């Protein structure tokens, strides 16, 4: 039997399960790591390092610099589809608050003047913001946390584990019987159902979808995945993106970037990154009911034939 911990941190419920004789101690350490990282990255906590950066415009912290550098890299590679400086626009929409609302065009235009990767710089261990920019690493933090936990579990001798960080899933090694893990991918139109099953080992599986956070106003549904160029919910022809990748931080940020880019842009980004040595697989759900999955999943993804979607496997 595995050891399990349920942890509420990073604004979500996380379920950590590890197997082996050191599982209990490893999960104790993992929980501590999660809480420490959250205390550093939570920009709504006035004592956090990110809050200090947003307040003072510069801060020195090796770990934050490393994570910000990854965020900036993915932002640049995606043409700004992932942008960790979109914080003020997120605040205006207030998806996670008590009174979400649709900001006016004038308000968005004024806020977007302070958004952009060029307003963020990393030099050694120093992170700096310019022109009133604000940093929010929520789109990459859980994936980065999973990377840290993976390293920690390996150090403790754990070879088999599942980490569900609020829907960002990492499966470590294989099951104790030697078989692959089987992960259900949520149906964005019916979160009680699923699109299909992915068989995987040593992989991060991250989904970004319109069902996660949204509100309705005047009969229109507004979801929380913003296009950094417009400041509005991305209208890319997608309702869900699932990324499979060997790196958690990359999987997390790429799920957002690919959602904003849309089907063609997401597949083009995958090709570009493959040329540079970064491989990842995609399951894309379009707003007209298609499920498109990449060739690396041909043998690993089993569609749910009762879901009502049309499935397209890319050759």
Q: Identify the strand order in the major beta sheet.
A: 1-2-6-7-10-15-16-17-19
The protein's oligomeric status is single chain
Largest sheet: 9 strands, mixed
- H and E string: EEHHEHHHEEHEEEEEEEEEEHEEEE
Q: Class by helix and strand content?
A: alpha+beta
Q: State the share of residues found in helices, binned by percent.
A: 25-40%
Individual helix count: 7
Beta-strand percentage? 25-35%
Mean pLDDT: 95
The separation of the N and C termini measures 40 Å
Shape: globular
How many individual β-strands?
Answer: 19
**Regions with little confidence, pLDDT below 50 for 5+ residues:** none
Radius of gyration: 19 Å
Structure explained in plain terms:
This protein has 315 residues and is α+β, with helices and mostly antiparallel strands. Helices cover 32% and strands 32% of the residues. It is built from 7 helices and 19 strands. The strands form 5 sheets. Strands 1-2-6-7-10-15-16-17-19 form a 9-stranded mixed sheet, covered by helices on one side. The model has no long low-confidence stretch (mean pLDDT 95).
């Amino acid at each position: 039997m595995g050891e399990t911990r349920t942890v509420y941190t990073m604004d979500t419920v996380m379920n950590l399960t590890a197997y082996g004789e050191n599982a209990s101690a490893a999960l104790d350490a993992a929980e501590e790591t999660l809480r420490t990282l959250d205390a550093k990255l939570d920009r709504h906590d006035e004592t956090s390092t990110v809050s200090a950066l947003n307040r003072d415009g510069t801060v020195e912290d090796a770990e934050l610099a490393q994570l910000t550098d990854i965020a900036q890299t993915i932002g640049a590679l995606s043409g700004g589809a992932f942008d960790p400086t979109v914080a003020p626009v997120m605040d205006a929409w207030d998806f996670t608050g008590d009174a979400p609302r649709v900001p006016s065009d004038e308000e968005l235009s004024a806020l977007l003047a302070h958004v952009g990767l060029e307003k963020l710089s990393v030099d050694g261990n120093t992170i700096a913001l310019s022109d009133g920019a604000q940093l929010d690493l929520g789109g990459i933090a859980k994936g980065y946390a999973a990377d840290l936990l993976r390293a920690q579990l390996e150090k403790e001798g754990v070879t088999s584990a599942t980490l569900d960080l609020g829907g960002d899933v990492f499966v470590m090694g294989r099951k104790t019987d030697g078989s692959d893990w089987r992960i259900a991918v949520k149906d964005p139109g019916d979160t009680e159902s699923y699109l299909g099953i992915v068989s995987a080992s040593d992989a991060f599986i991250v989904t970004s979808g319109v069902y996660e956070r949204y509100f309705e106003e005047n009969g229109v549904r507004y979801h929380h995945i913003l296009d950094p160029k417009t400041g509005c919910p991305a209208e890319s022809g997608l309702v869900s993106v699932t990324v499979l990748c060997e790196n958690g931080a990359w999987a997390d940020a790429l799920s957002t970037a690919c959602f904003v880019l849309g089907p063609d842009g997401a597949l083009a980004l995958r090709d570009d990154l493959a040329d540079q040595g970064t491989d990842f697989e995609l399951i894309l759900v379009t707003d007209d009911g298609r499920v498109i999955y990449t060739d690396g999943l041909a043998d690993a993804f089993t569609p749910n034939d009762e879901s009502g979607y049309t499935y397209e496997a890319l050759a």
